[in-house]
Design brief:
By secondary structure, the chain is α+β, with helices and mostly antiparallel strands. The protein has 8 helices and 11 strands. It has 2 domains: 62 residues, Arc Repressor Mutant, subunit A, CATH 1.10.10.10; 172 residues, Chorismate lyase, CATH 3.40.1410.10. The strands form 3 sheets. Strands 3-4-5-8-7-6 form a 6-stranded antiparallel β-sheet. It has a 3-stranded antiparallel β-sheet with strand order 9-10-11, with helices on one face. It is elongated and about 65 Å long. It comes from Nocardioides albertanoniae.
């Protein structure tokens, strides 16, 4: 069943349980979200009136469901405009390093993480970057990322505890952070900014990542946003001898990432 704009739905109404204690808008939201995740709306998203007919509920109920989906970053919806699936460029997960890990698994090479720290703490410097009070509790995650048992990167991430506290119960040794945020916290980042620069790794970073004495590293600083509000600050230290960024000037919006080892290299 597919619709857009004012297109009418011709199929039977989708089930909502009017005897359930769960509000109708929440039932509609959950079902639309399930359909989104199945890829049902990849080509187009139904308008308000199509959803009203599909679920046999009021327009107010549909608008409340869409409002909640908009808040979670899944849908772009505003009064007077046809709803559409939100741009999820960062949350698949995207960004250079994280597309790389997906490519590693797709190529048959094994990736996993060693979780060194996962706790709640305050950090005044990071809180300032996130635009919150200096004493605000933050979830802090520190991981070593490995490919075929060889260390590639050290990842440090901070997120507001009020949004990300469920991550404290997550197993992040095999799962991407953004996948866990989506599944456990119902959060999908909608934008952000990333800065890459060359750095001299600390002695501890050299030991943990196996970086030779004469080799530099790359530092990737990322601020992840939800609807323009920063909710993630991340610093990733990557081995300079195993990682590179390549831009094709014919497609300046595309960044190619290469990870190499002594036997072969792989580009994604």
């Amino acid at each position: 069943m597919r619709g857009n704009g004012g297109q009418r739905s011709t199929g039977p109404a989708r089930a909502v349980d009017r005897q359930s204690p769960m509000p109708l808008w929440a039932q509609v939201k959950d079902d639309v979200e399930r359909r989104l995740r199945r890829g049902e709306f990849n080509e187009s998203f139904p308008g308000e009136m199509v959803l009203v007919q599909e679920y046999a509920v009021s327009r107010h109920t549909v608008r409340e469901a869409l409002r909640r989906l908009r808040e979670s970053g899944l849908v772009d919806a505003a009064r007077g405009r046809t709803p559409k699936v939100a741009n999820t460029e960062i949350t698949q997960p995207q960004g250079t390093l994280y597309s790389l890990f997906a490519s590693v698994e797709a190529s048959g090479r094994r990736q996993h993480s060693i979780v060194r720290t996962l706790d709640a703490r305050a950090d005044a410097t990071v809180a300032t970057r996130l635009g919150v009070e200096e004493s605000t509790p933050l979830i802090y995650l520190e991981r070593i990322r490995l490919i075929d048992e060889e260390p590639l990167a050290m990842d440090r991430v901070w997120l507001p505890a009020r949004l990300a506290a469920p991550l404290l119960e997550a197993d992040l040794t095999q799962t991407s952070l953004y996948e866990a945020l989506d599944r456990r916290c119902n959060l999908r980042l909608t934008g952000g900014r990333e800065e890459v620069r060359a750095v001299v790794p600390t002695s501890a970073e050299r030991v943990l990542l196996g970086i030779p004495d004469n080799t530099a590293a790359l530092s990737i600083d990322r601020t992840g946003e939800l609807r323009g509000q920063p909710i993630e600050w991340r610093r990733t230290i990557v081995r300079g001898d195993r990682f590179s960024l390549v831009t094709d000037f014919t497609r300046p919006d595309q960044v190619s990432v290469t990870v190499s080892d002594r036997r072969h290299s792989m580009t994604s």
